[in-house]
Specification:
143 residues; mainly alpha; 5 helices
Length: 143
């Protein structure tokens, strides 16, 4: 890993681990697997708030994008201006998702309004996780 300050490296690694997890989950879902839910319908209710999952292609795109984001958070690009801008963009994106919540995110993605289970998971887990990852990503940009 390319060092960008001790705290920046720690925060970048934390954000990178989070993005790696996002990438792995979306890669699994791109294959059609519904893990960790019992079936695709339950998974969709938990992660999109609707009764159907996005396409495998959409999940694959998220997996690839999250993988690239993880590499950048792990230190790819070092202190080059493009890498710092990407880390800030990643951080801002997670902060926006955490602040605005899943209901607005589903509207922005033109998905049906989310059900109660998604809203519960969003409040308890997804939003706080996004805020943590966003804070870490933004913290990694400090010198």
């Amino acid at each position: 890993m390319i060092r960008f300050g001790q705290h920046g490296a720690i925060l970048g690694t934390f954000a990178g681990v989070g993005l790696s997890g996002v990438a792995v989950l979306h890669a699994i879902w791109a294959t059609g697997c519904s893990w960790p839910a019992k079936d695709a319908r339950e998974l969709a209710q938990h992660v999109t708030g609707s009764y159907s999952m996005p396409s495998s292609e959409a999940s694959a795109i998220v997996a690839v994008g999250s993988s690239v984001g993880a590499l950048i958070m792990y230190g790819a690009g070092g202190q080059q201006s493009w890498a710092i801008k990407m880390r800030r963009t990643i951080g801002a994106g997670f902060m926006a998702r955490g602040i605005c919540g899943g209901v607005l995110a589903t509207k922005a993605l033109k998905l049906p309004g989310p059900g109660p289970r998604f809203r519960e998971l969003d409040t308890k887990f997804y939003r706080p996780l996004c805020l943590m990852l966003g804070t870490a990503a933004l913290g990694a940009t400090r010198k």
